[in-house]
Amino acid sequence: MELEHQRLRRSDVFRVHGRIDSSNAQQFEDAIFRVINEGRCNLVMNLSGLTYISSAGIRALIAALKSCQGRPLRSGNVHLAEVPDQIKEVFDLAGLTPLFPFYATETEAVGAY
Questions:
Q1: How far apart are CA 49 and CA 72, in angstroms?
Q2: What's the pLDDT at 70?
């Protein structure tokens, strides 16, 4: 897995490439929570380069979503952008599609904040 982070004024963008599986899901979650723990909870996950996501990777995204939405003063969200069809299907089959806002482009996801 390769993970790129870009801090914007109103949101943080993570671009994920490769696979998120049990061997690197904790590294993925740690990177996300470093940003959340700084009080930045408007997150965009650009998944265009993602080829596989395990349940551990999905669990990391759900943990980030719960943490961001559960903040009393500065509530945020996790937007998913440019999600490949095979990855979107995993969310659909797991019944998780309603939890996350999905956007066709990264620009749309960032602009929604």
A1: 33
A2: 82
